[in-house]
Amino acid sequence: MAELVLGVGVPHTPYFPRLVEEGGKSGSRIASLFSHVAKRLEASAPDVVVVLDSDHFVNFFFNNLPAFCVGLADEAEGPYETSRQMPWCKVPIDQTIAKGLLQHGLDSGFDLAAAEELKLDHSILVPLTFLTPKMDIPIVPLFIKGLATPLPRARRCYALGKMLRRFIERWPGKERIALVASGSFSLEVGGPRMGWIDRPWVSTLVELIRAGKTSDLVKRATTRRMLGAGNTGGELLNWITLLGALDGETPTFLEPDMQPVEDPRDAHAYAVWEVG
Amino acid sequence: MSVYDVNKIFYLLETDEAFLATFRSDADEALKAFRLTPAETAAIKGGDIVSLYQMGVHAFLLNVLARHNLCGVNRDNYISRIRTLAGRGAASSDSRPRRKKAAARGNLRESG
Known about the structure:
Helix content of chain A: 25-40%
Order of helices and strands of chain A: EHHEEEEHEHEHEEHHHHEE
Radius of gyration of chain A: 17 Å
Distance between the termini of chain A: 15 Å
CATH topology of chain A: Protocatechuate 4,5-dioxygenase, Chain B
CATH class of chain B: Mainly Alpha
Largest sheet of chain A: 9 strands, mixed
Shape of chain A: globular
Oligomer: heterodimer
Number of helices of chain B: 9
CATH architecture of chain B: Orthogonal Bundle
Strand content of chain A: 15-25%
Structural class of chain B: mainly alpha
Helix content of chain B: 55-70%
Distance between the termini of chain B: 37 Å
Number of helices of chain A: 9
Largest sheet of chain B: none
Structural class of chain A: alpha/beta
């Protein structure tokens, strides 16, 4: 039986690696928060990291936009964005587990899409840069549509997470598996509310996560409410999928991060669940 | 009717180095493969992000103009132009709920 050893939630802001490299107040805060999470991830000694993420129009466009898709390539690289702000990286993918997850999904009512060739964008590579900087731990990317409407329902993403947990527990291998959810709680990219963050929503989410009130969170996370926090607010679905896999456990570390009122850009949180 | 094509142009600018290079050197050449109305072509070439947003272009994709300083758009003028729409119910494929207008106005006050 494989084992779920850790759950992690982090942001993926594309310029974070640059900010950290430049030092400065913001860079130091970001480095310290990521380092806190990275230490716990390292201590959990994962063999595989399943990344719960929303593709940022790099693999998928409006011609073909799956609600859920598992990456089945043997490796992937990126960031495939012409405006990338971090070095090019290559990451191995655990194809065996990825295929197992695809099959388990199909067998249990989740008709996942599958991609045997995929590109990575900053939303996977920024977290990995800080969490597994050697890029040597194989990942399994599980894409959850979060940036284009119609979004999958929060309750469906929660159930997807529960399916993922059952898959891990029934998997015949001995792998130690960590989950990383990537995304912000409040951020508008390119729209009229750029530079505004929805502080009440972020505070509510942090309180509910801290208290382990996940079913309450899922009920509140309607499409309207998530997108009310910014046009990337659907990235919360990645965290909700993680919460489904964690089955009501409370985090051992949870730190919201909102920029100062005079210069807000995005709002998110760093969290760790030490399982078992 | 061809907002799909407009979105696709911005998607390619962010994911296809060759397309980006062509667009920079000869926008007409880059655009000729797409089904665009004259208004769409003019809005793209003129960097008219307000019109593009109102046509329904996805804001996340639209922002590529600012990221690459294309068509006279940069980060500062992008933000000041797009914010003129705060509080208006423009349609776009990233779909904002209308009742968030008040919050958006509050934001402008908050961020000065």
